[in-house]
Amino acid sequence: MGKIVAKFGGSSLSDASQFRKVKSILDMDPRRVYVVPSAPGRRFDKDEKVTDLLYQTYRARQNGADFRVPFAKVRERFGEIKRELELEINIDEYLDEIERDIENGATEDYCASRGEFLNGLLLADYLDYTFLDPKDFIFFNPNGTFNSERTNDTLTALLKYTKKAVIPGFYGNLDEEIRTFSRGGSDISGAIVARAAKAELYENWTDVSGFLMADPRVVPGAKTIRNVTYRELRELSYMGASVLHEDSVFPVHRAGIPTNIRNTNQPEERGTIISHTLPEEESPDVITGVAGKLGFSVISVEKAMMNVEYGFGRRVLQAIEENGLSFEHMPTGIDTLCVVVNSEDLEPVRENVVNRIMELTQPDSLTIHDNMGIIATVGRGMVHNPGTAARLFTALSRANVNVRMIDQGSSELSILVGVDHSDFQNAIRAIYQEFVKA
Ligand code: ASP
Predict the structure, then answer these.
(1) Are 274 and 233 in contact (CB under 8 A)?
(2) The predicted structure's pLDDT at residue 410
(3) What does pTM read for this prediction?
(4) 185 CB within 6 A, ligand 1
């Protein structure tokens, strides 16, 4: 029987009633043998996440304030779950020990990680699964980066002998000290466990039913994406569409394991499946999604006969690099080369960049166009559908959107357009309406 690793986010485990939902989801499929919990999240709109309370506790201790005040709220959250589920575990003993550690100057990462640790203990007790502490098998290198090979070897060996386990997310071990991933990092832990377990599927249970084809604030009622490839996802999330922690995609992608985003509150919905490649017979929609980001500047360098000048592009990029900027895109024309950069990063070095490009390339003209939004229309289906670009630009012109820049990757996975901030939302809506049937 194949195995499924199920990661549950903070809102999926925010209180006892959510724990019950998690248990019934696990009971529905015997392949769900490894469970990766986050710390309890918000129960209602203005509620505090346990991880945030733990950071507050740490800061209070650092500032000499009474750290027991925020820590009491942490106690209460776990105490309530234990009481309502009538668990046997003596969670107070663990809380007392953590409180003593904090009193004695425990590190920030240690404090922050205790939400996952305690939630994992409660969940393991409730489900009757083995509790595995990531300090024993999720390793970081001395420079703080994640040590994937050592982790994978150790965890693979351990899981061989562990039939069903709860493995807290978010943290691991750096030289015998607790170290956390960046915020939202339980997604990464889940992906690491899926890889080590050679799972057939990594389920990421959250409070939405998957990725939407467009930002619902811009396109109300946007449909859910059923299937998406990891490469398309990379393009969409680069453009700001995010449900998953970016770094969580890599371990499962590399191991060829699909990820399924599911909704704990609506388990009957299939959610979004992210996979390496999709079945041949599937005929995908022309587009998978449309996403965009604001705040770009386009530096256009124009010079007649630029195409025959050796090193022209390199010199433009040299000026960008020397000023500590990275570029996002680089669409080129016959005699123009555009470099798209983040406006905020450009601002402090703007003059230096202009001067340096002038000096290095002696262009006929150099202009910078600010307030640009970039919209990516992404779809593996585009390659099979001639005329997609024509439809896209017709839709934009019908909506009176002035397209200032166009870039189509040679993969034919996406078409990027640059528009003014004022046209941004209008453009996204026009593209969505053109390609997605109501
Ligand atoms: N609890 C951590 C956070 O709030 C990690 C996670 O939930 O993934 O960032």
Answers:
(1) yes
(2) 63
(3) 0.87
(4) yes
